């Protein structure tokens, strides 16, 4: 303002007309005024430049003073160090104050220039992060976290606790992508010094939960991150860990675990996740049901479950009901009866299953436990509540009576089911009756029941077929068992290895070696690769038939498949050699057995010892006869 005023006065004086006497005065005064004006202008320019330079040099000085203050607080006197806690707190206050007052998020260059010479520690970094735990400062905390591990020369590795603290901060601020990235690093975290796994992530994340303002969203994020990394076991452990501490995972987290478990063919784990979900009262949605239906399709159990539900309810039900029934039946089959009944009650309270299905499954559970009294009481309750009896319930009672050996009562229930109630038995009903009849020695009744089953268009299960043929083979009616198997195969039955083992033992029982060999080659023809159990059975039964040469051929086949002979095989071969009088070959098998560090059974050893003792006595007797003849 002063400069402007002087310049205006000077301009006015230059244009004024005066007396000649005064012109000389004007000229001198103008020269003086011009000199003063020039000097003033120059002085103001110098002052302005000096101020700019002063401010330019003041900033580094301020930073130096800040670092000096930090180092003074950290160790004011080398001979008398202050407590670590006070030093860490003071330094963290200064660092966090600087970060909070910086308007934008500071760059790494700014942090390096300001704190590059500062010695960072795990407690100091954690304290700075906690000072910046409010959502507006979350990005600054993240920038300081990354910078401290990359640019600071004194600090190269964060602790797992620092990871967890920052994850809590980021989740609270809604920075989920950054939090997920840090969680992935924390899941793979290993100790930098020893290379061993870090302390448990779940416990560390839980211990830092109270340090930041609480929020359970981070636990869901951990479960979903583990599922995304296909670490379903860890995700399920995390879900159980935090659920035991009062934080139940969300439906999205459970669906994430289910989806990855099914895609990874971890079927057992998928069923555990589904069970845990219902036990914690997190009920499925359409995505959950579709995942479980896909799982049952992969296992091949969907058609059977749909049939069970239709037999109980009388008509088709929603896929969610099928999935729930499949889970309960799985729990009951594992012997966890009480857990299955409790889960059914919860389902009924939530109205996600029908009353008749709940009553039927509870009766099934009591029958599996053998508690027929409770099962009949539940049956009366079912009828009193207006639910009609169904084929599934009758089959449960028939199976329970057959397990007790009460075939008469089972037959009465079968008659009541068909004639009075008008229900049709299905394959499982016949399976229970056939097994019960053959188990109690009623083979004629069992075969009659099988004929009815065949007329109704059903085939017995593999276990039922094996029980039938085993009973026939024990009664030495092996040809009948073989004919039964041939008839079933023609109707579409697929035998398993156990089926052929039963028949092979049956032919060995009647000492028919040709039947044993035919069954072996039939297995190969049908694409069933004979395993070590089948080869062992063939060798042992050929030895029973006194066919040592054929047994040794199959022993060579076993060795070609790099399968080691068992003690039972060597026992059978030694016994067969002794029965044929082949002492030398028996001793070879015995030596081979001891080289393989196998101990023969008592029967095989005694057979070999008797054979050698008898042979020695015969040799001594022959020598005595020869010596006496020479004397004569």
TrEMBL record:
Keyword Transmembrane attributed: yes
Residue stretches spanning the membrane: 20-41
Superkingdom of origin: Eukaryota
Gene3D superfamilies (UniProt xref): Tetratricopeptide repeat domain
Record flagged with keyword Repeat: yes
InterPro entries attached to this UniProt entry: PPR_rpt (IPR002885), TPR-like_helical_dom_sf (IPR011990)
Residue spans of the PPR repeats: 250-284, 285-319, 355-389, 426-460, 461-495, 496-530, 566-600
UniProt cross-references to PROSITE patterns, sorted A to Z: PPR (PS51375)
Key words of the record: Membrane, Repeat, Transit peptide, Transmembrane, Transmembrane helix
Alphabetical list of PANTHER family matching this protein: ATPASE EXPRESSION PROTEIN 3, MIOREX COMPLEX COMPONENT 1
UniProt cross-references to NCBIfam families, sorted A to Z: PPR
Name of the molecule in the record: Pentatricopeptide repeat-containing protein At1g66345, mitochondrial
């Amino acid at each position: 303002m002063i400069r402007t005023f002087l310049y205006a006065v000077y301009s006015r004086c230059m244009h004024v007309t005066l007396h000649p006497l005064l012109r000389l005065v004007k000229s001198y005064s103008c020269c003086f005024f011009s000199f003063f004006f020039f000097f003033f202008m120059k002085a103001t320019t110098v002052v302005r430049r000096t101020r700019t330079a002063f401010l330019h040099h003041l900033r580094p000085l301020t930073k130096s003073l800040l670092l000096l203050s930090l180092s003074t607080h950290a160790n004011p006197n080398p001979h008398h160090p202050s407590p670590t806690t006070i030093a860490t707190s003071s330094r963290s206050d200064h660092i966090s104050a600087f970060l909070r007052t910086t308007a934008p998020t500071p760059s790494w260059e700014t942090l390096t220039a300001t704190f590059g010479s500062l010695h960072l520690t795990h407690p100091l970094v954690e304290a700075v992060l906690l000072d910046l735990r409010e959502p507006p400062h979350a990005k600054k905390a993240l920038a300081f976290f990354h910078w401290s591990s990359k640019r600071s020369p004194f600090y190269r590795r964060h602790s797992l606790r620092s990871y967890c603290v920052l994850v809590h901060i980021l989740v609270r601020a809604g920075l989920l992508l950054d939090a997920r990235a840090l969680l992935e690093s924390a899941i793979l975290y290993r100790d930098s010094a020893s290379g061993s796994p870090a302390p448990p992530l779940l416990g560390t994340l839980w211990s830092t939960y109270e340090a930041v303002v609480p929020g359970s969203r981070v636990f869901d994020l951990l479960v979903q991150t583990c599922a995304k990394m296909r670490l379903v076991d860890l995700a399920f452990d995390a879900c159980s860990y935090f659920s035991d501490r009062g934080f139940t995972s969300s439906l999205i987290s459970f669906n994430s675990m289910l989806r990855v478990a099914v895609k990874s063919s971890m079927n057992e784990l998928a069923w555990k996740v589904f069970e845990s979900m219902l036990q914690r009262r997190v009920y499925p949605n359409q995505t959950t049901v579709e995942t479980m239906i896909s799982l049952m399709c992969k296992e091949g159990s969907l058609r059977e479950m749909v049939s069970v539900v239709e037999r109980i309810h009388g008509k088709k039900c929603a896929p969610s009901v099928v999935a729930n029934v499949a889970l309960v039946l799985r729990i009951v089959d594992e012997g966890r009866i009480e857990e299955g009944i409790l889960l059914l009650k919860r389902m009924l309270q939530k109205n996600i299953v029908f009353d008749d299905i709940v009553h039927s499954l509870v009766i099934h559970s009591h029958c599996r436990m053998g508690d027929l009294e409770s099962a009949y009481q539940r049956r009366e309750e079912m009828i009193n509540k207006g639910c009609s009896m169904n084929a599934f319930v009758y089959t449960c009672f028939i199976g329970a009576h057959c397990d007790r050996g009460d075939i008469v009562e089972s037959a009465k229930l079968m008659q009541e089911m068909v004639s009075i109630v008008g229900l049709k038995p299905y394959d499982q009903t016949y399976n229970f009756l056939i097994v019960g009849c053959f188990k109690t020695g009623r083979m004629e009744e069992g075969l009659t029941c099988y004929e009815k089953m065949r007329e109704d268009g059903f085939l017995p299960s593999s276990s039922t077929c094996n029980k039938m043929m085993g009973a026939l083979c024990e009664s030495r009616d092996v040809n009948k068992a073989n004919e039964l198997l041939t008839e079933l195969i023609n109707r579409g039955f697929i035998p398993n290895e156990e089926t052929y083992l039963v028949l092979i033992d049956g032919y060995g029982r009647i000492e028919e070696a040709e039947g044993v060999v035919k069954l072996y080659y039939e297995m190969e023809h049908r694409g069933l690769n004979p395993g070590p159990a089948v080869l062992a059975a063939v060798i042992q039964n050929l030895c029973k038939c006194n066919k040592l040469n054929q047994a040794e051929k199959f022993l060579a086949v076993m060795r070609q498949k790099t399968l080691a002979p068992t003690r039972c095989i060597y026992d059978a071969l030694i016994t067969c050699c002794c029965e044929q009088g082949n002492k030398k070959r028996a001793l070879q098998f015995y030596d081979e057995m001891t080289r393989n560090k196998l101990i023969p059974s008592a029967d095989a050893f005694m057979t070999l010892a008797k054979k050698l003792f008898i042979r020695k006595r015969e040799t001594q007797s022959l020598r005595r006869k020869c010596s006496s003849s020479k004397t004569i």
